[in-house]
Amino acid sequence: MNLTLKVWRQKNSKAAGNLETYQIKDISPEMSFLEMMDVLNEDLLLKGIDPVAFDHDCREGICGMCSLYINGRAHGPERGTTTCQLHMRKFSDGDTITIEPWRAGPFPVLKDLCTDRSALDRIQQAGGYISVNTGGVPDANEIPIPKTIADKAFDAATCIQCGACVAACKNGSAMLFTSAKVSQLAMLPQGQVERKTRVENMVAQMDKEGFGACTNIGSCAAECPVGISLENIAMLNREYIGASFTSENV
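Structure (tokenized):
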């Protein structure tokens, strides 16, 4: 395939950015999107042009690093797929593909397509953990957890912290990410000790980072590559209201 790429180029967080147009030829439909980006960078290097900076690591849909906004959609046109799992067969010969970084105030652009998503780390650090001693590894049936609850906790735990929910949200909200971290531990026995302080602290940090409010549009869940459900946001709201009644921070 021969393609036209419009790629966001930005020297650093303080510089003004713009879309640059590149022509790329002989792209195999079996290539992943990131492999296509590698080919582009090889061509740019041969021409003496600074290669396009973009985040990547595992290239297996696990780490959440591949944060690209492709033709107006987080991670591209295929649902339930990270950018590294997106293949060029989803595009056609002669297509024009626009590639941008995540667009959100708390995600400043570092260079080109790389953004600083450490705001999500700080939300996690505010309470998305268990600090109490839970002892050694228990026997399989020592702490009985109903399968339905275990399945829901596992589904919430699959969040890879890529930030696609924030990028897809018109308000730049991090509610889907935060709710997944809160719900995961709120449903398990090990997470009960810090249940109230956890949701208070994580929501407070989320607001402090400057993320927008949730208006239940659902674009976050629609673009989430691992299928985190909006039910988690409902659970976060219940957890937060319940904690506020007995809060020690009031």
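The helical segments are 33-46, 118-127, 147-157, 164-168, 175-186, 195-209, 219-223, 231-245. The beta strands are 3-9, 18-24, 69-70, 73-74, 96-100, 109-111, 114-115.
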